[in-house]
């Protein structure tokens, strides 16, 4: 069982171009439809649980693994999800280092920059849409937070804390 | 704000770990925003452009972009030890918090009653992520065609809901070709 969890998440790790949100549909297909390890409702609940923790949301895999097979499943899912992609990144970094003299390398890498920023912006917009489900007040927080982070060098901790306080006051 | 980038510094091993620990711990909702904040603005490990390039590469590889960037940045400064320290620092605090949440959930069958606070924080995080994208775009002084690619990626992901791998596979080659053409590497007359 643990081995199967490890294998399943290792495969997911290598198809996760775009990170956790990109791999979520395939994760659902594997865990719910193919293996029947989780049902639909549990899958959604666990996703919400993972969102409540800070850090890269790829750790949603850890929560799924824990639910499927306890602590061992959690370890296997986390290892499977993180390690193959990290090993690939390691070797690509080595390749880049070897090619560093090539005149086309910097411009080629520069070509990936707008794609990455565009997807970060898209993630922010998707998060803002989700926040909008709580009404208009969160959208004001989004707008203020955008301006503060964009136009000033204040720590984003302030906007997160401010958002949390406003949420406690107005949303409960 | 001055436009001259401050000189970059090479972090020691423990500084590398502590920096990534902060990124993981504070990274509610938008870990990419915190990674840029710590690495570029606070600690000056990389310039804006260097960081954007590492992140771009991390984006097209499978796995989380910030996680891939941690491996590559750690390796650049301290080889295998650096990659392990950066990755370990990034995931260790969120993982511990997640274990505690799981235990809580197991015991009480629901999440702690912090939903309103979390909704407010999530709204703040959304703005933080959007603001970071704007900030990077401004500081990198992207060419018009790069801005077009950026907007297409946003449009495809946020409004059309296209799968991210599809967006990356279509836009990355086009964007790389445009960038090479700008650098005068594809023939033709590049605008200088």
From TrEMBL, chain A:
Keywords: Cell membrane, Membrane, Transmembrane, Transmembrane helix
Database matches in InterPro entries: CHR_Transporter, Chromate_transpt
Membrane topology of the entry: Multi-pass membrane protein
GO molecular function: chromate transmembrane transporter activity
Transmembrane segments: 46-66, 73-96, 108-128, 135-150, 156-171
GO cellular-component term (any): plasma membrane
Pfam families xrefs: Chromate_transp (PF02417)
Domain of life: Bacteria
Subcellular location: Cell membrane
Family: Belongs to the chromate ion transporter (CHR) (TC 2.A.51) family.
PANTHER family: CHROMATE TRANSPORT PROTEIN-RELATED, CHROMATE TRANSPORTER
Name this polypeptide is given: Chromate transporter
Organism: Belnapia rosea
Organism phylogeny: Bacteria, Pseudomonadati, Pseudomonadota, Alphaproteobacteria, Acetobacterales
UniProtKB/TrEMBL annotation, chain B:
Compartment annotation: Cell membrane
Pfam families: Chromate_transp
Record membrane topology: Multi-pass membrane protein
Alphabetic keyword roster: Cell membrane, Membrane, Transmembrane, Transmembrane helix
GO CC annotation, single: plasma membrane
GO molecular function: chromate transmembrane transporter activity
Domain of life: Bacteria
Transmembrane annotation, as ranges: 15-35, 80-101, 113-134, 146-162
Record PANTHER family: CHROMATE TRANSPORT PROTEIN-RELATED (PTHR43663), CHROMATE TRANSPORTER (PTHR43663:SF1)
UniProt similarity note: Belongs to the chromate ion transporter (CHR) (TC 2.A.51) family.
Name the UniProt record assigns to this protein: Chromate transporter
């Amino acid at each position: 069982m643990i081995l199967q969890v490890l294998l399943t998440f290792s495969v997911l790790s290598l198809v996760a171009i775009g990170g956790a949100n990109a791999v979520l549909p395939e994760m659902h297909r594997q865990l719910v439809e193919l293996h029947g390890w989780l049902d639909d409702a549990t899958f959604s609940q666990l996703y919400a649980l993972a969102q409540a923790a800070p850090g890269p949301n790829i750790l949603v895999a850890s929560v799924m693994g824990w639910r499927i097979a306890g602590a061992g499943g959690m370890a296997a899912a986390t290892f499977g999800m993180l390690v193959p992609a990290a090993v690939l990144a390691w070797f690509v970094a080595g390749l880049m280092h070897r090619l560093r003299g090539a005149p086309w390398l910097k411009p080629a890498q520069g070509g990936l920059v707008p794609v990455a920023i565009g997807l970060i912006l898209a993630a922010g917009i998707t998060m803002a849409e989700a926040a909008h489900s709580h009404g208009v007040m969160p959208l004001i927080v989004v707008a203020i937070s955008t301006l503060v982070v964009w136009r000033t060098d204040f720590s984003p901790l302030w906007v997160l804390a401010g958002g949390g306080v406003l949420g406690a006051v107005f949303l409960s | 704000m001055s436009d001259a980038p401050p000189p970059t510094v090479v972090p020691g091993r423990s500084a590398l770990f502590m920096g990534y620990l902060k990124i993981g711990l504070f990274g509610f909702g938008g870990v990419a925003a915190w990674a840029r904040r710590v690495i570029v603005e606070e600690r000056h490990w990389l310039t804006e452009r260097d960081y954007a390039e590492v992140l771009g590469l991390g984006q097209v590889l499978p796995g989380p972009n910030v996680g891939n960037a941690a491996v590559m940045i750690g390796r650049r400064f301290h080889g295998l030890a650096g990659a392990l320290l950066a990755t370990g620092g990034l995931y260790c605090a969120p993982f511990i918090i997640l274990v505690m949440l799981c235990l809580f959930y197991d015991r009480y069958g629901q999440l702690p009653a912090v939903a309103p606070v979390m909704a407010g924080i999530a709204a703040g995080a959304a703005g933080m992520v959007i603001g970071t994208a704007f900030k990077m775009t401004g500081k990198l002084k992207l060419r018009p065609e790069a801005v077009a690619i950026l907007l297409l990626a946003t449009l495809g992901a946020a409004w059309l809901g296209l799968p991210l791998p599809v967006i990356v596979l279509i836009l990355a080659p086009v964007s790389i070709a445009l960038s090479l053409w700008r650098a005068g590497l594809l023939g033709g007359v590049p605008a200088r």
